[in-house]
Amino acid sequence: MHDFRYQRGALHCEEVPIRELAERHGTPLYVYSSRVLREHVARLREAFDDVPHLICYSVKSNSNLALLELMRREGTGFDVVSGGELARVLRAGAEPRTVVFAGVGKTASEMDRALRAGILYFNVESEGELRLLAERAQAAGARAPVALRLNPDVDPHTHRHITTGKHENKFGLTVAQARAALELCRSLDTLELRALHMHIGSQILEVEPYARALGRLLELADELRGRGTPIEAVNVGGGFGAWYRGGEARSAAEFAEALVPPVRERGLRLLLEPGRFICGNAGILVARVLFVKRAEGRRFVILDAGMNDLIRPALYEAFHRILPVEGIDDPVHLPAEGDAQIVGPVCETGDTFGRDRWLPEVKPGDLIALFGAGAYGFSMASTYNSRPRPAEVLVAGGRSQVAREREREEDLWSHERPLEL
Questions:
Q1: Which of 84-88, 158-162, 362-366, 369-373 has the lowest mean pLDDT?
Q2: DSSP state of 247
Q3: How far apart are the first and last CA of the chain?
Q4: Which of 310, 364, 418 is nearest to 321 (CA)?
């Protein structure tokens, strides 16, 4: 679901007009709906209610502190992939025992911080990582809680850049490597193997790949438990899709129907790491038209937002619905194709948000909304071309707050030093 609706021809986030926010805070501008965020957490909780579970919000999808605090208030845990993300969730008041730490390249200092904090699990992805974790745990006088990440070699039928569960990907352990890791855990008293983990990709629109991957994960869990290893939980990762074109994503209930029964019958706890599913449709990027020019039958609509603000179309050829903020009464039945090339100001041909799209005639100063920008939007933004990053605003009903101030030009060089050689 989303809560960006046209009322009398003007786009609103919940009860707040987007034009009002753009005039108050400028553009480009990220706008998030707290109602959508809460509703998506509630749908996940209801869908998976038949099994003991923990929803660990994937911080990389959107790491704004206000959103993290909202997730904490809604009862989620957190999935982090760096020391910085761990620091963020702790700053947002997260209970460390609800935090899992993933990623193929954890450093010793990151492990030390997570051990001191007392997180729930380290999702371990290689023998080298396991040995380093054992060393750091020994130095800290602690036992490190381990969840081995299995690479189940399952194709999730998503973009090749966001597939993570096939053998050619860098993530996880094969079954043979997981068995060897078990023996290593048994030989080192600073490690405590307690769970198994998988994550097969992102923006997954089918249930079957999850069911197949979970089957392989549970086969390994059965084997390890049969050998006396007290596996208490399985973590199926994230990757549940969001709506970009509209209607393509599966519901939480459809995923739960396949995932819950085999986990429940084994008496295991289920962990989930959703990010995009929660926040993808909870945000838009608002931009202003700078110029319109025509060439060879094409209409180039040049915005003040660029690929540095929202890189998904350039990086993944990702689709985002793009519509004017005003002048639309029925967005459902509009044409899909047209002559508009919606582009940004960055000096790259890849700085294109949409090709051959329908847009009504627009002029400089008009506002444009890029939908489905709540996940992997600001969190992947950069200052390329020395462009300060946008502000972020969170809406709740008829109220709004700045969740992140717009960067200033002087912020661009605030950590640089003048030449002294």
A1: 158-162
A2: S
A3: 56
A4: 310
Q: Which of 83, 53, 57 is nearest to 72 (CA)?
A: 57
Tell me, yes or no, if 347 is annotated catalytic: yes
Backbone φ, ψ for residue 340 (5° rounding): -85, 130
What is residue 201's three-state secondary structure? strand
CATH 2.40.37.10 domain position(s) in the chain:
4-32+280-412
Kindly report the pTM of this predicted structure: 0.93
CATH number of 4-32+280-412: 2.40.37.10
Asked whether 51 and 270 are in contact (CB, 8 A), the reply is yes
Contacts of 418 (CB under 8 A, 6+ apart): none
Structure tokens at 345: 């100001």
Whether 44 and 278 have beta carbons less than 8 Å apart is answered as yes
DSSP string, 221-236: HHHHHHTT----EEE-
CA distance to 44, 58, 70, 234, 249, per residue, from 94 (Å): 19, 13, 11, 21, 29
Does the domain formed by 34-278 have CATH 3.40.225.10? no
- Using one digit for the tens of pLDDT, what is the confidence trace for 325-384? 999 988 888 888 999 999 999 999 999 999 999 999 999 999 999 999 999 999 999 999
Distance from C-alpha of 326 to C-alpha of 323, rounded to nearest angstrom = 9
Query: What's the rounded Cα separation, in Å, for the pair 195 and 230?
Result: 8
pLDDT digits (tens, 9 = 90+) for 105-116: 999 999 999 999
Torsion (CA) 272, 93, 378, 24 in degrees, nearest 10: 130
Burial of 320 (0-12, 13-18, 19+ CB in 10 A): buried
Residues of the chain with CATH 3.20.20.10: 34-278
- Give the per-residue pLDDT at 152: 72
Closest CA to 389 of 312, 275, 311: 311
Q: Among 13, 56, 279, 347, which one carries the catalytic annotation?
A: 347
Cβ-based burial of 340 (10 A; exposed 0-12, middle 13-18, buried ≥19): buried
- Report the alpha-carbon distance of residue 243 to residue 258 in Å, rounded: 21
Contacts (Cβ under 8 Å, ≥6 apart) of 291: 300, 302, 364
CB 284 within 8 A of CB 3: no
